[in-house]
Design goal:
It contains 14 helices and ten strands. By secondary structure, it is α/β, with parallel strands linked by helices. It has a domain of about 240 residues: Rossmann fold, CATH 3.40.50. The strands form two sheets. An eight-stranded mixed sheet has the order 1-2-4-3-5-6-9-10, with helices on both faces. The chain is globular and about 45 Å long. The N terminus and C terminus are likely disordered.
């Protein structure tokens, strides 16, 4: 005869499900083009946007830590990485539209956007075009603040750039480029701080389609004089949008002065400078980067978009009202640039 103790069901330990934090590469066809993206985790959505010539792989080492508290989506922008590289519109506005459609296809209504370099410009454009779908902005060494940009990018925007980039794929050139980049690092030049990333861009352009997409994207935002797209004329619209700026003080692609200008121009923004970092502060100190993102998302409420408030800002706001647009000459230059 069984006693009371023997009739009791065996005690089992119930394990809480742990979200999968390892990123996996997925594909989704939107408008007939294959778009690649990495995703992992669960919770509030973080969208990570890479820079020009890069891909979602740039975030790969950070995604597992970010995915402990967030659903992380890191797309390869069209023309980059494993996404298709058609002869198409590679403007910042087109990238923002493409991101909206990808997120819609994935069932994501709103997200915090983390944009690096070109991706920062795309994030700002997305927030401008679709404020109701933007919860927060994190701009990392972002383009689209001022004219200054590394002379190498200005040169790459000139006619004949495709031929020059093709020359980098000739036998032996990879070694020579690697030697030059290594020498810059040895001499402690600022550009050498991003040596590994520079070589990644070279390796990401193995064929004509990749090079054509790179040049089309670059020419949409840079010409021989520098950056041709600005957000300073609309920065007052970020009122009420939680915004954090992350920059390396040794950035020789987009100078740190742009961080201070954007911080002054964006009401209520937060500025964090990574001392000793170049254009990729999230590679320089990934632990601090992840902590700042986690703290920022946890410590701020998502932006609440109001049509009435948006109209009020458009009617009463002034471009550069915070004084960050600089001199009168710079304001005139702003008026010549794309306001799409």
């Amino acid at each position: 005869m069984m006693d009371a103790k023997s009739r009791r069901p065996a005690q089992t330990t119930r394990l809480r499900p742990v979200p999968d934090t390892e990123p996996r590469l997925h594909y989704r066809v939107v408008h007939g083009y294959r778009r690649a993206f990495r995703t992992a985790g669960s919770g509030p959505v973080l969208v990570l946007l890479h820079g020009i010539g890069d891909s979602s792989a740039t975030w790969a080492d950070l995604i597992p830590d970010l995915a402990r508290h967030h659903t992380v989506i890191a797309p390869d922008l069209l023309g980059h990485g494993a996404s298709d590289k058609p002869r198409a519109d590679y403007s910042v506005a087109a990238y923002a539209n493409g991101l909206r459609d990808l997120l819609t296809a994935l069932g994501v209504e709103s997200a915090t956007l983390v944009g690096h370099s070109l991706g920062g410009g795309v994030a700002m454009q997305f927030a401008y075009q679709f404020p109701e779908r933007t919860e927060r902005l994190v701009l990392v060494s972002a383009g689209g603040v001022g004219r200054e940009v590394n002379p190498l990018l200005r040169l790459a925007s000139l006619p004949g750039a495709q031929l020059a980039l093709a020359g980098l794929q000739l036998p032996g050139m990879r070694y020579q480029v690697g030697f030059a980049v290594g020498l810059m690092k040895l001499l402690h030049l600022d550009l050498g701080r991003d040596a590994a990333e520079l070589l990644t861009v070279v390796d990401a352009l193995p064929d004509r389609r990749s090079r054509d997409s790179f040049v089309r994207t670059l020419r949409a935002v840079v010409d021989w004089r520098g950056q041709v797209v600005t957000m300073l004329d609309r920065c007052y619209l970020t009122q009420g949008m939680p915004t954090m700026l992350l920059w390396g003080d040794r950035d020789c692609v987009v100078p740190v002065e742009h961080a201070h200008g954007a911080h002054e121009a964006m009401p209520g923004s937060r500025l964090e400078i990574f001392e000793g970092a170049g254009h990729f502060p999230f590679h320089f100190d990934p632990g601090r980067f992840v902590r700042l993102i986690d703290e920022f998302v946890a410590g701020t409420a998502p932006a609440h978009w109001s049509r009435e408030r948006w109209r009020e800002l458009l009617v009463t706001g002034r471009p550069g009202s915070a004084g960050a647009c600089g001199t009168e000459r710079e304001l005139l230059e702003v008026s010549e640039r794309s306001a799409t």
